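Annex B, item 7. Sequence and structure tokens for protein A, then protein B.
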Amino acid sequence: MLKEVKNLELSRVVVKVPATTANLGPGFDVQGLALNFMYDLIEAEKISGKKVLIEVEGKYADKIPIEPEKNSAGKVALTLQEKLSCGVKIKIFKGIPPGSGLGSSGASAAGAALAINRLFNLNFNREKLVELASIGEIASAGAAHADNVAPAIYGGFTIILSYKPMKIFSFFPSKKLKFILAVPNFSKESTEKTRKILPKKVELKKVVTNISGASAVTAGMILSNPELIGLGMQMDKIIETARASLYPYFNKVKMEALKAGALGVTLSGAGPAIIAIANFKPENIMKIVEVIKDVFEKEGIEAKIYISEASKGAEIIEEE
């Protein structure tokens, strides 16, 4: 959430950034959703000189590079360095597991973009902030993609309409919609590598199916229709097919969750997390949660299961 810019000299800004899920099945690099079950905190502080410094705290600190050029928040700061009146130290309090498929690097990049914008009074609009944050994603994914950083900044459900110029369509889905997130303790290849395994050429009929699926997800979000969202999530014939082989548990989890009443199940972003949607009945949601837990236990994989709604976007929670 962007605050009205005031003419005051700030020394420090702290931003709270939600976890996100990208693609939602067929909407590769286009669709994303902010989630309210997990957050990062990003602090930007002015320092003397012109350096960019990175510090990381929290459970996952040892997994996050502190070299600015290798860190998505640092990459954003380096991109803006010439516009800054002094150096900046970015402290990341990491609550979103890195490499989980929940927009961890995107949260760092989005938080840095918003915090630096406020700290140095740069007056960028949200589309410009998404553009900057997407550049930050190069540090972890090897490519500037906005499907995580857009919902992290805008909140709710977002669609990338164009990259050049950056154009975003966004709206906030109903709180009635509940999403089940399974986050396994499972090492995966880097996001950069999970992008490289994707096909370079695709049959036209598969493209048509994916467009239909992405349209169904969008319509379902607008209409608060979990059946329509689930139908769309199941229609990815390109990305999930290529990535499912990276996760030996995925097909079993998907099959059993659908049997238990899930309306749609797919990878969250590049994985290894899985996202599912169910109808509005709490007892049905809990049945699916228990089935997913059971599959992971039988596979010998530790996994945490969460229930989430859509979240508002990154917001400034402290400034001085």
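Protein B:
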Amino acid sequence: MKSLFIMGTPASGKTAVSVGLALKFQQEGYRVSYFKPVGITGGKSRDEDEDAILMKSVLKMDHSLKDIVPYTVGPSYLSGNRNCISLQEITSTYKRISEGSDIVIVGGASFPHIMGCVGLDSITLAREFKSTAVFLIHIENDFSLDNAIFVNSYLECRGIPIAGNIFNNVPRPLLAKTEGVYQAVIEEKGYRSLGVIPHRSEIASPTVAEYFEALGGEVLSGKENMDRLVEDVLVGAMTIESALGYLRRAPNKAVITGGDRADIALAALETSTSALILTGGLYPDVKVIARADEREVPVLLVHYDTYTTLEKCAEISKRILPTDRKSIELAQENIDKHVDWKGILKTIK
């Protein structure tokens, strides 16, 4: 039995890549199972880990959700009762999952360092499981590549085999630079690029409903269109003169602005906007709601300040549901077209 540990950061697409690789390996005749040692609650309304529900369905696993994800934790896990699951317990559960499998796909937490205080971070677990690592790079700018090189270096120092890196969900404006510059730089550093997967909104962009679930608050308008995709997030904190050109450049966006900025809200509603997110708990002018109703645009009222709202939005990623056959097929298609999956198989063999 071999295991492949999928690591990355929020919005790097760990779930989609896990689904795509698992199905591809199954197609090649391997018995594949899935394990996620540490699930992150993050204030979600449901107890079950959504990755576990998805992978159990996709791979037709007989194991319970509790076995697939033995431990879930929130961002304040050191407060109050500090007793948590032990490394031995997680390893024991991992061995149960792996029985009868040729390959186990192991899903990492939101960041590789999560749970490092108690020795349950992804790097420590990968070493314990004798896994081979794949790191997913979510490119936003040059600093994203710095982070990837740092993580690869640390994995190497800890003696963990690295199959390589996948540049995933790469935005169109950064695609040429990723293929021509970023891949070359990471390979110059001695780390392998397994491929570049372009951003596809159908599989990578969260819906307005997913933003609402993460942010809470109230839906003031557009409840019937909560399934709209959000391809970009903009903050409207400038003058109205500066805002107009800025808002027109981004399609299918969510615009975050204060509830008292009716001018920005109304300007956003005249462009391709998937949702308005009004911060500070301030109810907007009635003109904003009236125009949003006319344009059928969801308006979310949240009680965080603009900065906190933006931070929370940065960690929201697309969920793939077991019933979402199109996204599942696209996940496998991305692996077929853009990833050196044969190279991964050779590495873990």
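Comment on protein B: The domain at 2-204+320-348 is CATH 3.40.50.300 (Rossmann fold).
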